[in-house]
Amino acid sequence: MEIIKIGAMWCPGCIVMKKIIKQIEEEYKLEIKSLDLDFDEEEVKEYNVGDTLPVFVFKKDGKEVKRLIGEKKYEDLKEVIEELK
Predict the structure, then answer these.
(1) Displacement of CA 78 from its chain's centroid (Å)
(2) Rounded to an integer, what distance in angstroms lies between the CA atom of residue 6 and that of residue 35?
């Protein structure tokens, strides 16, 4: 499973979630790829991101299988990871 987080330096929800993302990475031995809306424009385009950040894209076998939009709790991310394992 691959997880991509799309955020921005100016996004309050993205800043709040930094600690949660680190906790998820450590607990599940995952690396969550971070893309910045402003600095990684070409890569971000393929995900058709709207106005709400952050966006978490969950991929399996190279295909998107789930997406979470906006600031989420630790439990929300954990639930999706467990579901997709």
Answers:
(1) 12
(2) 5
Question: Which residues lie below 8 Å from residue 42, measured CB to CB, with a gap of 6+?
Answer: none
Of 18, 20, 21, the residue nearest 9 (C-alpha): 18
Residues contacting 6, CB < 8 A, separation 6+: 34, 35, 36, 37, 44, 47, 49, 53, 54, 55, 56, 57
Radius of gyration of the chain (CA): 12
Q: Looking at the whole model, is its pTM more than 0.85?
A: yes
Q: What are phi and psi of 65, to 5 degrees?
A: -115, -15
pLDDT band at 55 (very low <50, low <70, confident <90, very high): very high
